[in-house]
TrEMBL record, chains A, B:
PANTHER family per UniProt: LACI-RELATED TRANSCRIPTIONAL REPRESSOR, LACTOSE OPERON REPRESSOR
Pfam families reported in the protein's UniProt record: LacI, Peripla_BP_3
Organism ancestry: Bacteria, Bacillati, Actinomycetota, Actinomycetes, Streptosporangiales
UniProt-recorded name of the protein: LacI family DNA-binding transcriptional regulator
Source organism per UniProt: Marinactinospora rubrisoli
Keywords, comma-separated and alphabetical: DNA-binding, Transcription, Transcription regulation
Amino acid sequence: MKPPPTDRTNGRAAPAARRRRPTIVDVAAAAGVSKSLVSLALRGDDGVNAATRARILAVADELGYRSNVLARGLVQGRTMILGVLLTDLANPYHTEVVAGVEDTADANGFTVLLAHGRRDRRRLEQQLDALLQLNVDGVVVISSWLEPQALTDAARRAPVVVVGRPPRQPAGVDTVANDDAAGAAAAVDHLARLGHERIAHLAGTARPASRARSDGYRATMRRLGLTHHTAVVEIGDASRHRAQAAAELLSGGTPTAVFAVNDMAALAVLDQAHAMGIAVPERLSVTGYDNTVLAETVRPRLTSVDQPRTVMGRLAVDMLLERFSGRTADRREVLAPDLVIRDSTASAPRR
Amino acid sequence: MKPPPTDRTNGRAAPAARRRRPTIVDVAAAAGVSKSLVSLALRGDDGVNAATRARILAVADELGYRSNVLARGLVQGRTMILGVLLTDLANPYHTEVVAGVEDTADANGFTVLLAHGRRDRRRLEQQLDALLQLNVDGVVVISSWLEPQALTDAARRAPVVVVGRPPRQPAGVDTVANDDAAGAAAAVDHLARLGHERIAHLAGTARPASRARSDGYRATMRRLGLTHHTAVVEIGDASRHRAQAAAELLSGGTPTAVFAVNDMAALAVLDQAHAMGIAVPERLSVTGYDNTVLAETVRPRLTSVDQPRTVMGRLAVDMLLERFSGRTADRREVLAPDLVIRDSTASAPRR
DNA sequence: CTGTTAGCGCATTCAT
DNA sequence: ATGAATGCGCTAACAG
């Protein structure tokens, strides 16, 4: 805890001559009217003399006056700010949801501010709290790391929508998720239609979304009568683990196709296949999940399950707006994902 | 502009039973003391009876009391919040700088909030304004898009540090940048040492950083006496442009090496080389710039110039702290980049 | 139609 | 150890 900022705007000339932004009183003084009148004029109230209003607007413009959100929030009880809390800035999945959030927020006159949890639950809670303290009107949580209790608590202070798949459904908060089971089914069905039978699965960590995808994989394999599904390997976050898991997967059972839990995992499979001299897609088909930029970047371009991220972000804000208008019942939305077929999948090799 | 939130905490039972967070008065009431005493106790003032303090702390803890940043900011003139303004959330370069900012902010008890410009100058200005309205104590701008005037104006309200290379040095704000010319020289020198002579360059848009790199490239080629530097192609942001530019570059002059302005451009070269059946690095060496995750993702792994992003972020906050302690002179810091050699560069092919 | 006045919210700091 | 005053900028209610 270092020495905090000392500068005060009042008092004698501060070092850097910090300038107060013009307030409504400055405008009032410059225009020679009361600040109430300025307020009315600025908000287009009818009861203001046209000439006076013109003068006020001119002065305000000249001074570069802009009303202060927080001050207005103080009296109106709303700030027109929406907070977005996300686990991991570096995760492109998250940032695309943010784009959707921004779209709808913009269209409705809201400003969006972001808080970053750095993949740390404690920090996520702190940041959520920080947003709430700013009196944001609502929060979109792009994370499945928070305890249901923390979310429910937060929702008592402002409407909260979770984008993703929290471990348990928290009371009082809305959720938007994609149908992981359906996505897994789409990928596996696609591979099966291409004639693959030995379809292996590279599974993720214990996160709910990963589990749902693995469950979907197993269910689909069962439905297809494919008992020979080679292996399910738990992988960690470290890329070394992924590589190791991928190596293990390709060595045992000699699969002709792999359904990876996400694009990063799929990339590990691609790399491992390359190292082992297995041609993709000729001898091995690979599918990812999330359709991140990665999928369009690696060679061969990755077939991947696409979550409608932008739509999810938009929907999240829509749900916030509904809460603002009085909805009290929780709403959970599950969106259908979409398989994007690229170059990493092809017909199964003949024996 | 949709109907804004209507809920007020006061009045009769609001639909969702929105709960006020406990304030210092609640704690005072529950502990049977005045709020002044609570304030003193919480901040460890000596003049508080030990037993009383213990009771107050216990009550505060039980109620889950946490002081409100904004209210404290009101009276103290500082909020202990730092704002980060960035051009593009999806740009991993930016997010790594953020990590550095967060490191140092954390260590000094500051909270970090992010505002996103969506690659739009107007929006960047709005977001900068939004941060300032929150009374953040300082702002780190990770962008070179803002007009110097906008930055200077902002700096009158709170200290501002720009990470990156603004077109002109704005008065009153500090800057942290990497030495693009030196980075370019490191890359070209590396290629020259490997025996390359026909070293082409894939240039970027008109952004200052890109220009500095191109200048560095040309200067180094001249210094090395390599007049035969094939071509400089202007590329746009669209990936199609990049591909086209890369194709053009590899067709004319048959270079044996390419210094690309950034990793994305290098990736385009890699892809194009692959399409044309040119083996990398056997027949063509490629270097990138920025050392993004991309560099460690593509095959072959990309040799790239690394900017010390985390350090830059940390330094930015250090500079903010200096301003808080009274520094008034502008400070501009230029950090040395570092060439990271991977698999995409090798000795020049024999004729 | 215009101007004045009193809070909105909360924590700190000064007098007592 | 306490009440009252204070910081901020705005809007709403009311008086002129």
